Amino acid sequence: MGELRVLLGDDHTMLRHGLRKILEECRDWHVVAEAGNGRDAVRDAVALRPDVAILDIAMPQLTGIEATRQIVGRAPSVRIVILSMHSDRAYVTQAMQAGARGYVLKESAGDELIAAIDAVASGKTYLSPPGAHMMEADLRRGQNDKGLLDRYESLSEREREVLQLVAEGRSSKEIADMLSFSPATVETHRTHVLQKLGLKNTTEVVLYAARRRIIS
Asked: From residue 194, how far is each of 69, 155, 206 by CA, in Å?
């Protein structure tokens, strides 16, 4: 694979710098941007249209999976590889359903990440560990594991954003400033989140987000 433009999204600065060094030294690839949270990753992906975006699955403000949904919707030419500590089938399913083309474990980052970038840049899918190839077969046959889906899928894009920010402990004013909404609009989204998910208060929102690993 020749020259590629790559975006790195991860909230750990040292990891981003390490990945940049690996990618730019091994191949004729150029890291066009580094993002420390999911919201910045979406902004940079839409503005810069890199060939490939490498996104950590667990980022503040917006998870890698939610960032993937938004990038695919706004900049579909960007091919996304999710970088994760989790090999659970649930996470692979969510990532691929969101539109990711690759899924690589952080412990394997290096040669395997390079292979994943090569694959997705060529229009292919790359999944790791080996057991995840079973998921690829499921997706090709159009099969979904309904046990992995819940009412989260009924939330709108903005409601999912508000859910994560509330779970991270941000106030309605902070969320309003970040999303360019009025505090009243944030409260409306917050109410809809509680209603759709069957939750009663912020504590239950935090517990729900933790169970789904929207927050760590």
From this structure: 22, 10, 11
3-state secondary structure (DSSP) of residue 171: coil
Q: Which amino acid is at 60?
A: P
- HEC-encoded secondary structure of 62-120: CCHHHHHHHHHHHCCCCEEEEEECCCCHHHHHHHHHHCCCEEEEHHHCCHHHHHHHHHH
Write the CA distances from 183 to 45, 61, 167, 178, 188, integer angstroms: 28, 17, 17, 11, 9
pLDDT at 97: 85
Residue type, 182: S
Cβ-count burial 104-142 (b if 16+ within 10 Å, e if not): bbbeebeebbbebbbbbbeeebbbbeeebeebeebbeee
Ranges of the chain whose pLDDT falls below 50: 131, 142-149
Could you give all domains of the chain from N- to C-terminal order, each with its CATH number? 4-140 (3.40.50.2300), 150-211 (1.10.10.10)
Helix (H, G, I), strand (E, B) or coil at 216: coil
Q: Are 104 and 113 in contact (CB under 8 A)?
A: yes
Cα 186 to Cα 137: distance, rounded to the nearest angstrom: 40
Q: Say whether 191 sits in a helix, a strand or coil.
A: helix
CA nearest 65: which of 56, 76, 74, 78?
56
